[in-house]
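Notes on consecutive records. When two proteins share a document, each keeps its own sequence and its own token line. Never mix them. Below: protein one.
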Amino acid sequence: YAMLLSLIFLIVLVAAIVGFVFRHEIKTNFESNLNLALKDYNVTADRHSEAVDTIQRTLHCCGVQNYSDWERTEYFSQRGIPRSCCKSQNDCSEEDLKDPNKAKLKVFVDGCFFLVTSTMESKMSVVAGISFGIACFQLIGIILACCLSRYITNNQYEMV
């Protein structure tokens, strides 16, 4: 049991170290994937499009760096900026969303990449604290399992 807990502890420790060391690559991959999701954005029930809409609605942002990122997409030439970028759903018309100058007043102007990464970094202290707490419980479990094992093997010949 102690060996199994030690193995789980080492796996969690390695995952945390790898996540910390490669955090810049994770950001770069996230940015490129977000750009790709914008490029391939459509109105159908595509998971990537739904994810972009959810991020934009939840974080009150639009595009990767800013709302003008949508101007370089095929979706913009057909329908303009998506409605998920609108500050108020009632005040956004399709004509406003097709004109970048009018859209600037109606949509969120901040990009999503910075907001997502800053939100993740602000929550990292909570994740690290919870992980540290779990690791402490695992270490206590490992120590107690070793003590129990030693107690059982030492008293093996005294049993009647």
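Protein two starts on the next line and is unrelated to protein one.
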Amino acid sequence: RHFWGWLNAVFNKVDYERIQAVGPDRAASEWLLRCGALVRYQGFEKWQQDYNGLPTGPLGKYKIEAINATDSCIMYRGFDYLDGLEHVTEIKLQKCIYIQDECLQRLSETKNLQKSLLQLKIISCGNVTDKGIIALHKLKNLEYLYLSDLPGIRQKETTVRVLQQALPNLELELDLE
């Protein structure tokens, strides 16, 4: 167990020189795929899942539009990779054992995501509580939020009320029984 925690920490270590060298979208793609997530680029329908098959081309040609982190080992430590992403409209966090409240808080404080993120799904992330969900109120352009199988959500009505007051145009879908 200790080995896997160490390995995940290595996968999630941010390489700022790499971000400078290849741009934020390429560096984030490499991080996400290394951790087992998928990315989809603007103008493409196919999800990129093979690290060795990442497309090449001029710097900045491929912009991440969607992230599917199902069963991935992404954790707070790697979230600096998200800072430079300007075109991400949807994120799915499903069965992410390292996602916790601090991750959602960090996500919601990422300036570019505050502008671009429209859809967020959080499913079966056992370390997420009301505090993390409430932190999402800073995602001012969020149009759709799906929450399912989150046992850490203990005050559903209060959490929903706070989110709906902060984000009146938000469509909130819950499956939290």
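For the record: Helices lie at 2-11, 16-22, 24-34, 101-109, 111-116, 130-134, 156-166.
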